[in-house]
Design brief:
- With about 160 residues, the protein is mainly α.
- The chain has five helices and two strands.
- It has a two-stranded antiparallel ribbon with strand order 1-2.
- It is elongated, with a radius of gyration of 37 Å.
């Protein structure tokens, strides 16, 4: 009986030993995988047939001050006295297109500049303020028509409930 107990104990010990070895192997594989994920989080080994990103070089205009047909190519501003000051002070914060589309008279430009100084941290323009306002009023004066022409010859009808 003692021999049978000894044999059972040996078998139980061998089973326990195999379980410990198997658990150790699993932990080792998990540790290696964890180290791999930490060192290379992009997991290139697990990426399928994803297309590779192609880097395309975009040509940059060499000459920022280039003028074609009386238009400053980089900004779209009309070439005229005050253009440089307008570019230097207005396009630091927003697009030249925003400046061009806001056609205002001198009084409205002055109040807009004051508003930007009070609320948007625009610096004191000093002597440039008059130059910029004159440039904008001369080259982008207010239009007599609004954004959209008044609707005419419209056949209106009543909506029924």
């Amino acid at each position: 009986m003692k021999k049978q107990n000894n044999d059972n104990q040996k078998r139980n010990f061998q089973r326990l030993y195999r379980k410990i070895i198997l658990a150790s192997v699993i932990v080792a594989i998990g540790g290696i995988a964890l180290i791999y994920f930490i060192l290379n989080p992009s997991l290139p080994a697990f990426k399928g047939n994803e297309p590779e990103t192609e880097i395309v070089e975009i040509s940059v205009e060499d000459d920022f001050d280039k003028i074609e047909n009386g238009i400053h190519v980089s900004t779209g501003f009309i070439e005229a006295p005050g253009m440089t000051e307008t570019i230097q002070n207005c396009t630091n914060c927003h697009s030249s297109k925003l400046v061009i589309q806001n056609r205002m008279n001198a009084e409205r430009w002055k109040s807009t500049i004051k508003w930007m100084q009070e609320t948007q941290n625009l610096w004191d323009l000093g002597e440039n303020e008059t130059i910029i306002i004159n440039y904008l009023v001369t080259n982008y004066p207010p239009k007599k028509v609004g954004r959209r022409a008044v609707l005419t010859d419209v056949d209106w009808y009543q909506l029924e409930e």
